[in-house]
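Researcher: Here's the sequence for the chain we discussed earlier.
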Amino acid sequence: MKFLLVFDFDHTIVDENSDTWIVKCAPEKKLPNGLRKSYRPGHWTEYMGRVFVYLGDNGITEDEMKRTMTTIPFTAGMVDLLGFIGENKEFFDCIIVSDSNTVFIDWILKAADFHKVFDEVFTNPAAFSSTGYLTVQNFHAHHCAKCPKNLCKRRVLKEFLDKQLERGVSYTQIVYIGDGGNDLCPVMFLKKDDIAMPRRGYTLEKKISQLAQNLSPVECSVLVWSSAAEIMSHLKVLIKE
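Model: Thanks. This is the structure I predict for it:
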C-alpha cells in the first residue's frame, strides 16, 4: 500500500507563479496595460494565450523562454523534499495538478532532474506552433461552479483515483500539498485519513480556516507548512509507521 502525494506547482513546488515569471522575457520585463487589464476572473488560460501571442509578436524565442523559466526558484526545502521522494518511490506515488502548463512544468522539472519523481502531471496542454508561438489550451471542460473554467482539481484527482483502482492500486492515504484557492475543491474531497498541507499565509490556508470558523471544517487533517522540510519530516514519520 502506497501513499499518494498530490502537488500543486506554482507557489508550492516553485516559489513563484510560472505564468507571471515568463513576463521577464517581455520587452522591458513588463506587459502593456491593455493586455494586463484584459484578464477576466476564471479565464486565466485565455489570458495567458494573449500573453504568449504578445511575446511571439515581439520575437521572443523558445530558447529565451526556456532560459528564463529554468531560473525560477524552488520553494524553501523543496529540492531536498523532491530528492527524498525520488529515493523512496516504493512508498510514494506522486502527481502534479496545476493551472500552469505542460511546457513550463516540463522545462523546470527536467532542468532540475526531478521529472522522474512524478508519475503524472495534469496541467493545461501547451506547445509551440510552426511559427514559434507558444499556445496553451484548457485542461478540460467541467461543471464545477467553484473552480476556474479550465480546471477542476477535484475532478482530476477523482478520475486519477478511479483509474488507479481499475489497475488494482489503492492508497493508504492521500497527502495534498498546495497553496491556492483552486486547491480547496480537491481538499474538500479528501477523507478523514487523508492530509491537506496548505502553505502558511496563502489562500488555501485562509479558506480552510474560514470553513472551520463557519463550523463546516474539512474532513481530512490539516498540517500547515512554511518550508518543505516540514513536509519531509511528516513523510518520514508516515513511512516509519
